[in-house]
Amino acid sequence: MAKTKVLTGEAAPDFTAPRTGGGELRLSDFKGKNAVVLYFYPRDESPGCTAEACAFRESYEIFVDAGAEVVGVSGDSVASHERFAEHHELPFILISDKGGAIRRLYGVKAKLGVWPGRVTFVIDKNGTVRHVFSSQTDSVRHVEEALRTITSYSSESPN
């Protein structure tokens, strides 16, 4: 597992970014309300990224029932995200990280120096990172890891 800048137990850095559905998403808007599964992926419509997004789609209601929102992050434009979300019927938010500022903020490194990294952060509703998972090739495991963390967290703390 690659080391990231933001580690388990640390506060998740706040950011604002353009999102699908219009407007901007500010991470701190979820604080005190919902946990967030923040997953960084390389690009819309690539095979691994599509498999990952569809796996998040298939488990989305479980995340929502556990009090979590799913947010996907890549460097693609909002227009690209809108097409990707429509094509695969994605019910969750995608944000555009053109220029990679959020990736740098979270320490998500490029693989082989060129391919944007695939890392998932599970952030509790207090804004603390509860779990970090990094795997460039095992895209569906990101969903499994996030589900395991969210369900164990939601069962240990009352809402």
Please tell me about this protein's structure.
- The protein has 159 residues and is an alpha/beta fold.
- It has one domain: Glutaredoxin, CATH 3.40.30.
- Helix content is 34%, strand content 21%.
- It contains four helices and seven strands.
- The protein has helices spanning 47-65, 78-88, 101-106, 139-156; strands at residues 16-18, 24-26, 35-40, 68-74, 93-96, 119-123, 129-134.
- It has a five-stranded mixed β-sheet with strand order 5-4-3-6-7. Strands 1-2 form a two-stranded antiparallel ribbon.
- Strand 6 (119-123) and strand 7 form a beta hairpin.
- Helix 1 runs parallel beside helix 4 (139-156).
- The longest helix has 19 residues, at 47-65.
- The mean pLDDT is 92.
Features:
single chain, 159 residues, alpha/beta, Glutaredoxin, 5-stranded mixed β-sheet, two-stranded antiparallel sheet, 4 helices, 7 strands, 21% strand, globular
Task: Indicate the topology.
Layout: E1 16-18, E2 24-26, E3 35-40, H1 47-65, E4 68-74, H2 78-88, E5 93-96, H3 101-106, E6 119-123, E7 129-134, H4 139-156
Parallel strand pairs: 3-4, 4-5
Antiparallel strand pairs: 1-2, 3-6, 6-7
Helix pairs in contact: 1-4
Would you report the number of β strands? 7
Radius of gyration: 14 Å
- Terminal CA distance reads 31 Å
Whole-number tally of structural domains: 1
Counting copies of identical and different chains, the oligomeric state is single chain
- Structural class per helix/strand content? alpha/beta
In which order are the strands of the major sheet placed? 5-4-3-6-7
The overall pLDDT, averaged over residues, is 92
Name the helicity range: 25-40%
Instruction: Please trace the helix and strand order, writing H or E for each element.
Output: EEEHEHEHEEH
Residue runs with pLDDT of under 50 for 5 or more positions? none
**Main sheet specs:** 5 strands, mixed
Provide the CATH architecture.
Answer: 3-Layer(aba) Sandwich
